[in-house]
Each structure stands twice: as C-alpha cells, then as structure tokens.
Amino acid sequence: MRADVQWKLRWESELELAEHVELAEFFRKTYGPTGAFNAKPFEGSQSWAGARPELRAITYDAHGVAAHMGLLRRFIKVGTTDQLVAELGLYGVRPDLEGLGIGHSIQAMLPVLRELAVPFAFGTVRPALQKHIERFGRNCPVTVVSEIRVRSTLPHARTDLPPTRVEDPLVIILPVGRPISDWPAGTTIDRNGPEL
Which of 29, 39, 40, 68 minimizes the number of CB atoms within 10 Å of its CB? Predict the structure, then answer.
C-alpha cells in the first residue's frame, strides 16, 4: 500500500529554522542506522552534511518528513572536462516507508531539472544501494556506472585528516538536456568541493 504523501519543492533560502530542525531529525533517524558517524553532521538544526543544497524535494505525510532529495548545480571535472551538472544527494526515506515507492523523488525533481536547463543530473551512492537504484531507474533513464574514482573535499577542515577523500561509489547519471552519449569520458570525477 502506498503512503499518502505530498511533495514540496523548496529553495534553500525559503526554509525556516523549524524546517531545518525537522529535516535534521529526519536525517539523524534515517542515516543513524547506517552508523553513528553518518548521523553526526545533522546535530542540532543542521540539515546538510557536506555541500549545502540549493533546492530540496521533500515528501511529507501525516507523521512529518517521509523522504528527501537535495539538488546543487555545480561544475565537476570528469577526466579533463569541466561538466555542468545538477548534483543530487542528501537522499533518504524514512525507514518505516522503505519499499513503498515514495522515495523516487527524482520524479518530483525532473520538471525542475528541465527548467534549470542542466545537461545532466549526477549523484553517487554506496554499492550496497545498486538494486535500489536499478528499481529507481525503471521510471527514468538513469545510467549507473562503476569503477570511477570520485574525489571530494571534506566539508570541515581537520588537522588529523587529509583535505580530500577519494571513493569508489556507484555514479548515477541522468541525461536532462543532452543525451548520455555526450557525457565526458573519464575514470575520475573531481567534485571540486564537498559531496552534497
């Protein structure tokens, strides 16, 4: 049975403090089961972990925030090519609603992506989420690529860690304004900033 939900698209500057508090609690509860470290960035009223989104697709139901996806336009470097993308991240579904199909927030984002006239949407996920992303891709033409190294800066400077990290996630590419054949070749992606 599908939950009764309502999608809202919110620009970051429109969010009130109470909404950030509610989103931070949602992320602590959603990311916490994957490890305390994953919930830590959302202490207090901080509703972002790395780069701050400019637009959010937020799903609400009778119990509050049900799902979330953030968007940030940026240039990434794919191989040697600078590529404009809408990075999608801060993805989450409340644990009690997983499997009901409401997490497919990309459907709520598609009209906005087209309006923003970005050539591609881009995101990364842990390899453990591959089956979920494949289901997600049934309704839109996403391409999932592995064996690409992704470099990001850390969101907060620390003296005990290097300023960047390199990971091997699954890379998700969604053609928006250009065909997937126009995606630049390369085995490395540099975000030139922190992950969304």
Answer: 40
